């Protein structure tokens, strides 16, 4: 991941400063990505940071469900959420963010590239998801002073909540496509309520795709 990230940054810099980049750069970049993606259970997808000559590369699964979870791929609601972040970035600088169900991290990583002077806490429960999340954070180095933190967080686990709430008092809690089952709603609402009790000024942003009227 480091070599891929290094070459991506080098290519972006050369593209900004020259009219032509030697094809060997692109050839090696593709070779490294193909080697990293030799296991076809995961691929790399690339998302452009709005109004910046920068790409965010996310390793994720092409499958809807993988390893028993939907968290190993980027969903449309995450892309829509990033667009909202961009259009409202002037109100978001310097905030503390908490993402519930961060998955492979596209929204949080994109947010970290858009803003400055922020703390962003990315949480998920599934261990495989957290491993890919760490990999994607390390593979997309930032040029600003934002801090990214990751936590394993089961919404129904008191110990997880206590550990997270001791270090994170968020200004904004956000989530994308985490409400896919009615059974998830009570623990989600309980978690949100507890953080609001901790800070009554906390804002909550939920981005979701309309699939089921009971979970929208």
From TrEMBL:
<dbReference type="GO" id="GO:0008168">
    <property type="term" value="F:methyltransferase activity"/>
</dbReference>
<dbReference type="GO" id="GO:0032259">
    <property type="term" value="P:methylation"/>
</dbReference>
<dbReference type="InterPro" id="IPR019410">
    <property type="entry name" value="Methyltransf_16"/>
</dbReference>
<dbReference type="InterPro" id="IPR029063">
    <property type="entry name" value="SAM-dependent_MTases_sf"/>
</dbReference>
<keyword id="KW-0808">Transferase</keyword>
<keyword id="KW-0489">Methyltransferase</keyword>
<protein>
    <submittedName>
        <fullName>Putative methyltransferase</fullName>
    </submittedName>
</protein>
<dbReference type="GO" id="GO:0032991">
    <property type="term" value="C:protein-containing complex"/>
</dbReference>
<dbReference type="Pfam" id="PF10294">
    <property type="entry name" value="Methyltransf_16"/>
</dbReference>
